């Protein structure tokens, strides 16, 4: 297949100061949960992006000095020779594929309390730690500023030594430099405070000094916010930021533009759609001749060319789309648009940074596994035998297993009870705001339907006898899970003794099946992710009075990990949901629900017509157990059929997020007919130590 000529513009080389990017695909700095802690894993991940065609591939935020440490969040660092050696692993791989490597030099200021290095954090003034750690910063005096400039210069030199082609001055995202810029945080009376010129001074000095240090070989990029407020509204307040960019317009070699509201900049698809930064930053190109990049969860090549052709940006910046599909540029280049694995905007990749663990992606189960498991997002070993695999259930686990087994060349029989594929994904993508989640199903279905070695049997609810009658070599059960209706969960570790009548107690499965209450409803959320809040939206759309009760101290608390908690909370308040925190449902008799205060045990009654319990799920593993039983019964007669393996994966093994089901399906397919050491399924990355 050849490329659509309309997309040619995306493959034009673009000069960035002394270096030239081979095309307009730019992986902006993004965290991975790997950082300096896992150098080989992160190098292989970045190298894979370059292999997939990204013209520029950047690090995550990269600390210039031990006085800026962000553990437990795994940042990158450029502190010493060991770091240079670690980064060289990445830059070598990026260069091997013709990409440019960028290092985002970072100073945290009041965002980092330096819990790892125990250095005193510094900022423009003495201020509280921005993320609630009970430490304050020291106000930087002139000698501190001189030291900071020296650290930045030396880190830039180390970046150059490590082979980076682009070095960043990072002046946004509420880190130290943005505090110098803002009149809200900068109260200084010296030449670094007061007037706009004074507040911009440090950023200007760092740009000039970085150019002086490494500008012969490296481009100097500035990461900068196009606006200074308007949080959440979608109506930007540009404020002084236009003037600031005008003052510095021609100084850097590239402007990497983002916005003040991080929750919108990397918003989940439930609240923020593709290309959402345009309204904030479209003016930037009119005031600089330097190339401009921004993000916008770009997955559509038509949106990309529109951005370029209308002069909004020079580069298509991406973090999440490059995680979901490291080969996105190659697929556009080769005219394989329907093979793009589009990001669904769920932000599960961000959990890696939040929880200090390697990132995981709902769409791309190979991300982070490039080095430790040797997984390639586009390549998989051919089948290890002529076996036939019977897959039962076409949710994310069954679909991904089928797709990957099909790619390996196995004969796959996929049986699904429903009249359509997708399992929970097909149900959940009907909920308010979640339509893009359907991409998990669509990407896989598109591929499977083209495979002559995959047969699909819809409307086929398999019994154990049906399964045994198929005589497949391997049986894979991916039958999912069902939400419980008895109040049992994290808080109530046992089912509630009083909860009923049954026709007034609903679960998310009922709501998704269109079986809704008709009066005032209590939603009891002991799940803490998105489900209770989307159910609340469904019920509010029907004008039902809704009270959402949770034992946590905020709604959808896990949403903090995916950077959506504040937006969920705002949405619930906007649509008129009453929220009661720190309470658990302990009984319901059809008219009155009793809630118990988590701290005092005091009971609080509420009269409602219905209760929706969003607590935990029961694995749908009856079929697995019945087949297991049949195999035991058959085992004493040699002539009877016995499969070579019976396996259960996904929610029917252990209910979890969609990403976990996709991963389970992929792993099953990778490991079939291979030797796997169950005690050591992968390699474990370790940090280098180097003197100097
Ligand atoms: P997961 O997230 O683990 O992939 P899902 O709940 O999304 O699980 O999908 C499970 C799928 O399995 C559903 O589409 C369901 O209809 C299907 N299923 C459940 N039991 C059977 C069965 N006995 N035969 C065929 N399909 C089944
Ligand atoms: Fe996109 Fe979700 Fe993957 Fe992140 S985890 S890249 S948001 S699909």
Describe this structure in words.
The mean pLDDT is 96. The strands form 7 sheets. An 8-stranded parallel β-barrel has the order 3-4-6-9-10-11-12-13, surrounded by 5 helices. A 5-stranded parallel beta sheet has the order 16-15-14-17-28, with helices on both faces. Strands 19-26-20-21-22 form a 5-stranded parallel beta sheet. It starts with 13 loop residues before the first strand and ends in a 21-residue tail after the last helix. Helix 18 links the parallel strand 20 and strand 21. It contains 21 helices and 28 strands. 52% of the residues are buried. The chain has 692 residues and is an alpha/beta fold. It binds adenosine-5'-diphosphate and iron/sulfur cluster. The site of iron/sulfur cluster (SF4) has 13 residues, from helix 10.
Helicity, in percent?
25-40%
Strand content: 15-25%
SS summary, helix count: 21
Q: Which regions are unreliable across 5 or more consecutive residues at pLDDT < 50?
A: none
Rg? 27 Å
Task: Categorize the overall geometry.
Answer: globular
Spatial strand arrangement across the major sheet:
3-4-6-9-10-11-12-13
